[in-house]
Write a structure and sequence with these properties.
globular; Single alpha-helices involved in coiled-coils or other helix-helix interfaces; mainly alpha; 9 helices; about 60% helix
């Protein structure tokens, strides 16, 4: 299975992924589904298969947070992911979710601006406040306070929306740390996705 079996020739993580023959049917099915959906096996799945039960729980939660019902659009949730990943300097997530943001917005210039420095991207007040709160959760969570919540409410975010901002930021902080601490490299295919050919 490319992406796992060719790790020795093309290492993409510091911890060798498991032999695909050691994985159960559910884990193998998830890897094949990921390959079918994306067109290649994202390195994150191959690397996280080292703990297949954890990988399965993580991807269910990740999909619920990023793709499930929310007052936040998929693009807004990806913006949070990109900004948090930029703050954490997580190469894997910044590259892979930058590609997803380019595809969702259809605007590679905006997506790149957001990933390099969201503070200089052309954002409305509501979106900027959402991203500033995600950065605060990332940098100084102990300083989060009720005034932050009231500010987001004043800009039209519901309490469920605010929870989704928090959970999305928290999910990316978790994933960024796993990716960075395991030396996870992005698949080369991500770099050209969502760009004009």
């Amino acid at each position: 299975m490319p992406g796992i079996s060719d790790h020795e020739a093309n290492p993409f993580t510091w911890l060798p992924p498991p032999d695909p023959a050691s994985l159960d049917a559910e884990a193998l099915a998830l890897l094949e589904k990921a390959r079918a959906n994306v067109g290649f096996l994202p390195n994150v799945f191959a690397a996280y298969a080292i703990r297949p039960e954890h990988m399965l729980r993580w991807i269910r939660h990740f999909n619920a947070v990023l793709r499930g019902p929310s007052g936040l659009s998929p693009a807004e949730r990806e913006m949070i992911g990109v900004v948090v990943s930029a703050e954490n300097r997580c190469l894997y997530c910044l590259v892979s979710h930058g590609a997803e943001l380019r595809q969702l917005t259809g605007d590679p210039v905006f997506a790149d601006q957001l990933s390099y420095d969201y503070r200089r991207a052309p954002l409305d007040e509501r979106t900027r406040a959402m991203l500033e709160y995600a950065v605060k959760i990332t940098r100084t969570p102990v300083e989060c306070n009720q005034a932050d919540i009231e500010h987001l409410r004043s800009l039209g975010f519901s309490d469920l929306d605010i929870f989704d901002i928090i959970e999305t930021a928290a999910m990316f902080n978790f994933t960024n740390r796993l990716a960075s601490a395991t030396g996870l490299l992005p698949n080369p295919e991500y770099y050209s996705q969502g760009r004009a050919s």
